[in-house]
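Can't paste images in this forum, so I'm doing it all in text. The chain is below; anyone willing to post the predicted structure tokens underneath?
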Amino acid sequence: MKMMKNPYCELAFKTIKTYLETGNVIGLPKNVPSELKTKKAGVFVSLHLKKGDLRGCIGTFLPTCECLGLEIIQNAISASTDDPRFKPIAESELGNLDISVDVLSEPEKCEVVDLDPKKYGVIVSCGGRRGLLLPDLEGVDTVKSQLEIACNKAGIDYDSEKFEVSRFTVKRFS
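Text version of the structure:
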């Protein structure tokens, strides 16, 4: 099994591996970069099979933990075991996973004309319903398709309901 070079993805992988093998949640390793101990941000952990199929993706658009490292640990476990679209990752799948970690900027309210699906992720909201879509996803090439997908995730009717839009950028590590 090859080791990942990126410390964000290494942390996510070590978290998933330890959790699947032992049921234990790792602590934040001492040797991680300082920003993983001091910075706070929303984080998404995405799991893909080597052939490209999505296998799990869970995240937070605002920080819920005391630091970025703990946010990655929490979301790595959730992406591998709690994504309702997939059955939990099995230990036997570990060697076949590609992991990416997206660190989100703080969302800002915007208008549709301010969007670019390659550059910005979106959050749509209507009442208590909210849907998020990360930026620069394969097959999502227009603002309209980005908004339709985010609305669908939230249970918002794109064509008939008014919804608010926020945008954010990501730093993607893979």
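The longest strand covers residues 97-104. Residues 108-169 form a domain with the Dna Ligase; domain 1 fold (CATH 3.30.1490.150).
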